[in-house]
Design brief:
This protein is mostly helical. It has one domain. The longest helix is centred in the last third of the chain and has 45 residues. It is 82% helix and 0% strand.
């Protein structure tokens, strides 16, 4: 009995020491090294590029809206209003990107300095008390910490791999919107005085713009491309991190809750010193009774 107790205590001590070591490594090493890693720095640079793209897109739509509203007779005012209203989406996307920056700069440190050591502490309490609720809480804290730490870096790298064509479409739309705004402002500023505004625009756009309908059609196509680009920005900067978070949470949950099945005990074998069951007892009694009969 003393040997069994000492072995049990030694096993508990090893588990507690491993959890303490994991908490110390998370607090002192990982929280300092991981934010400086190339993986995280590339993710932060990608978020910064996305923020610059959104702000550039917002400036392009505003300048185009102002240029359209300066056209005579206010015939394109609805288009100008539609372009100006797009900035509501840009503000929402910028808020999400700002939150992603916070998660990269502070979320990783918070995860490995607070959540993971806290999970290890709860795990130590579980080892000492054997209460299942503490085990579940420790696993959940660990999963939450890892998911918070890696959701944005993984989502940005995944977006760079999967949605590179979509981001190229957004950049082309921004260039086209800026180009349309510059040409419209150039036509309004002056040039050949003997030409109408539509003739000037036709020369600048290198296409036939013979009246209001042709000009409206051009900017309607611009607005359509802008709306498609906004949908792409929402997908890549808002939905992809959310989807990545749930995928990481599910993967980590499956990883931490793997149950290794024990081999089944064969019915023919029983432990030494164990008493025979009732069926074996009845069989032996029948045999002994049969032997006693004459």
């Amino acid at each position: 009995m003393p040997l069994m107790l000492s072995a049990r205590h030694a096993s508990l001590a090893v588990k507690i020491l491993l959890l303490l070591l994991a908490a110390a490594l998370s607090f002192f090493v990982v929280s300092a090294k991981l934010p400086e890693s190339r993986f995280v720095k590339e993710s932060l640079a990608s978020v910064e590029d996305s923020s610059n793209t959104v702000m550039k897109f917002s400036a392009a739509t505003l300048s185009t809206s102002l240029a359209i509203s300066a056209l005579p007779d206010d015939f394109a005012t609805p288009l100008a209003d539609n372009l100006a209203d797009m900035n509501t989406y840009f503000v929402a996307i910028l808020v999400v990107l700002f939150l992603e920056k916070i998660l990269i700069r502070y979320g990783i440190k918070a995860a490995f300095m607070i959540l993971i050591p806290l999970a290890c502490s709860v795990g130590i309490l579980f080892v000492a008390t054997k209460r299942d609720i503490l085990k579940s809480l420790a696993i959940r804290l660990c999963i939450l910490g890892l998911a918070v730490a890696f959701v944005v870096p993984c989502s940005t790298h995944l977006t760079d791999i999967v949605a590179s064509d979509l981001t190229a479409y957004v950049n082309d739309t921004i260039e086209e919107t800026e180009d349309g705004s510059d040409k419209l402002n150039e036509a309004m500023d002056g040039g050949a005085e003997d030409k109408t505004i539509f003739e000037k625009l036709s020369d600048l756009f290198q296409t036939a713009i013979n009246g209001i309908a042709d000009l409206l059609l051009h900017f309607q196509n611009t607005i359509r491309r802008c709306m498609n680009s906004i949908a792409i920005l929402i997908l890549t900067n808002c939905l992809m991190p959310l989807l990545t978070f749930f995928i990481l949470k599910w993967m980590l949950g499956e990883l931490f809750q793997i149950a290794i099945p024990l081999p089944p005990i064969r019915p023919g074998k029983r432990r030494r010193g164990a008493e025979p069951d009732s069926q074996s007892k009845s069989d032996s009694e029948l045999v002994s009774m049969g032997e006693k009969r004459p």
